Amino acid sequence: MSLDTIISAGISQPPKPGTALVLMGGGARTAYQVGVMRALGGILKAHRPDRRGFPFKILVGTSAGALNAACLGACASQGLEAFSQLARFWGQLRSSDVYRLSVPSWVRFNRFLTAYSLSRFARATGAILDNIPLVDTLHNAISLSALENALQGGAVDMLAVTASSYTSGVHWTFCQSAKHDPSLMWARPGRRADFQPITIEHLMASSAIPFLFPATPLWVDGQIEYFGDGSMRQVSPLSPALHLGADRVMVVGVGQPQRSGLLHGSTGGRSTRGPQLGGIAGHAMASVFHDTLQADVEQTRRVTNTMRRLPREVASAMPYRSVDVLAIQPTESLDAIAQRHLKELPLGTRHALSGLGVLRGGGGALASYLLFEQGFIQTLMSMGESDAHARKDELLAFFGKD
């Protein structure tokens, strides 16, 4: 729902107010965001024919949401067509474009041998999958020169992606704009920001799901640090957009209204046995990728209620500002949808995860991050479109305030 929120950005006057898009992480689940964006483009074309330019000035992405944000930034000069370009990219995507199993082909049809080979790979690299295919996919899909042109031409003002340092424990936000403004950068306990040209390496670092994909090295503070998924230790996902001057924020997460209750052996909504490895893994992933957004939105509600009770002259003297927030998340359980699409996983991957025991007892939750297959992707995109159209009036009100 649309929230009028007041959040501290550490400054009393934003340098250049603008509308921000914040895209949360979640692996293949972020196909939902693509559906929301495609619906938004159609709604604006149909009901705001005078607004054909790209509607966001600030793009903030985390994990696979960072890939979506970078893709949109590179296409921003095309206006609303950028959303269709993002949808075309996802419409061609397959798991083989994102990751591969680093095991001999002759063992892939035996789940126990596959799991054993993966465990050896994990001990060597810190992850069970190899995401090198994603490097080629991103090089082909995202034009970094087009991104720079969009920034220089003013189609978009800022792209920011987040990643978490395994080396220092600091959560970093890397920002690219046409002009570096040091006053926009921040340093908080456990959170830092820096101006750097966004590269494929930054996107790989931001989307390196813990345990599944290897860490990526990046250069920060004069040294190499190793980074993983930006959803880790992300205590305030709306904060980067506000620091960068947003006065309106649309945030699209990929959480879900409630857990799907898919624990093996459950009856009547209650489990008859303890959670298995798949259920525990899914619960841990949900905590990494989704819970912080919900907490941040709840906090904005509390701050809003407090600030609205203050006299105007008191509120204007405080280092806070009013920010409109429109938050959209799936209305159906993505875990349950993934459970129905498990057979779409590549056979080797399915055997590997089965051999590790993570597809039993709610294994759809974990698999949903890896299901880069068209059945699952198209289902999520359709849900995103449906959810956005159901909130058409809110979207039109949000983008009709210029």
Give the secondary structure arrangement, pairings included.
Elements: E1 2-7, E2 18-23, H1 31-47, E3 58-62, H2 64-75, H3 81-91, H4 111-125, H5 132-141, H6 144-153, E4 158-165, E5 171-177, E6 187-188, E7 191-195, H7 200-206, E8 216-220, E9 223-229, H8 239-243, E10 246-252, E11 266-267, E12 270-271, H9 277-289, H10 291-307, H11 312-316, E13 321-328, H12 334-340, H13 347-355, H14 364-367, H15 374-390, H16 392-398
Parallel strand pairs: 2-3, 2-10, 3-4, 5-7, 10-13
Antiparallel strand pairs: 1-13, 4-5, 4-9, 6-7, 8-9, 11-12
Helix pairs in contact: 1-3, 1-15, 2-3, 2-6, 4-13
Number of helices: 16
Distance between the termini: 20 Å
Compressed to H and E, one letter per element, the order equals EEHEHHHHHEEEEHEEHEEEHHHEHHHHH
Task: Write down the overall geometry.
Answer: globular
Approximately how much helix is present in the residues?
Answer: 40-55%
| Strand segment count | 13
The radius of gyration is 21 Å
Largest sheet: 11 strands, mixed
| Overall pLDDT metric | 83
List segments where confidence is low: pLDDT < 50 over at least 5 consecutive residues: 1-8, 262-270
- What share of the residues does DSSP label as strand, in percent? 15-25%
Structural class: alpha/beta
Give an overview in words.
Helices cover about 40% and strands about 15% of the residues. The protein has helices spanning about 30-45, 65-75, 80-90, 110-125, 130-140, 145-155, 200-205, 240-245, 275-290, 290-305, 310-315, 335-340, 345-355, 365, 375-390, 390-400, and strands spanning about 1-5, 20-25, 60, 160-165, 170-175, 185-190, 190-195, 215-220, 225-230, 245-250, 265, 270, 320-330. By secondary structure, the protein is an alpha/beta fold. The strands form 2 sheets. Strands 1, 2, 3, 4, 5, 6, 7, 8, 9, 10 and 13 form an 11-stranded mixed β-sheet that branches. The chain has a two-stranded antiparallel sheet with strand order 11-12. The protein is globular and about 70 Å long. It is built from 16 helices and 13 strands.
